[in-house]
Amino acid sequence: MEAAIGEFAGKMHTDLIDSIQWAIAQGIADPDRIAIAGGSYGGYATLVGLAFTPDTFACGVDIFGPSNLVSLLDNFPEYWKPWMPFWHKYVGEAVNVDERRKPDASTN
After folding, report:
1. Inter-CA distances, 92 with 1, 7, 78, Å
2. What was the pLDDT predicted at 67?
3. Strand, helix or coil at 63?
4. How far apart are alpha carbons 11 and 3 in whole angstroms?
5. Do residue 63 and residue 86 come from a single domain?
6. Rounded-to-integer distance, Cα 69 and Cα 56, Å
7. Do 9 and 47 fall within a single domain?
8. Going by C-beta distance under 8 Å and a sequence separation of 6 or more, which residues neighbour residue 49?
9. How far is residue 61's CA from residue 94's CA, in Å, rounded to a whole number?
10. pLDDT one-digit tens code per residue, 47-87
11. What pTM was computed for the model?
């Protein structure tokens, strides 16, 4: 988990692709029939796999995985709010686009 700090999908996806390549090399998997599926974070991993490496997968099934991390963080139910520091550690904090466009007062 520590490898994923600040990159919710990066190293996870690299590990996933490495495991697929290993399974193909071992003769366990047919490279033309690789599927990906998961729920929650596994659903997010499914969307990442299909978006970042579409030629790897014949199909994918996302079961309630978040497709927009900004919307996810902005719409956490109250009982999830104590987990916000954990999420910010891995996903980051959403920055309002309008706030990013304002000139920094310290540089004027």
Report:
1. 15, 8, 19
2. 93
3. strand
4. 7
5. no
6. 24
7. yes
8. 13, 16, 36, 56, 57, 60
9. 27
10. 999 999 999 999 999 999 999 988 888 888 999 889 888 88
11. 0.78
